[in-house]
Amino acid sequence: MVKTLTEMAAEIVTAQASHAAMSAEELNEALKKAYSALKFIKDQEDKGEGAGEAQQEGELAALRANPTKSIQRKYVINLEDGKKYKQLTSRTLAKFGLTPREYRKKWGFSLRQPLSAKSLTAKRRKTAKTLGLGNKLQEARRKRIREKGRK
User: How far apart are CA 121 and CA 114, in angstroms?
Assistant: First the structure.
């Protein structure tokens, strides 16, 4: 059941009057103030929802025009729905019928471009260097080439 602004204002003033003695004039004034405050808040919410959606659509259109800006330091903005993620996974993109490769192609990203926040990419790069994964990969490739050469 949705309450009207008048009902909510009456509840607020009733609660206030139960804790302090108030004259009829004070009750009337408190009721008017509570009602006007609630109305102001409701009007702000109504304005904010429409304006926020329009602003978000404008920002999304700007990002679609320049997709590289969708990959930011702390998050990646999905150009399909405008939501922010740490990483765009294949599962997330599957909701839009896309694979990561198709997403990259559709929006003009390099096939090697990570679809993750820059901070996450940097953290992974640092961990890989610490563990020496690049050297291990090179060694495994060399070993595979040597084995093919012996056959």
Answer: 7
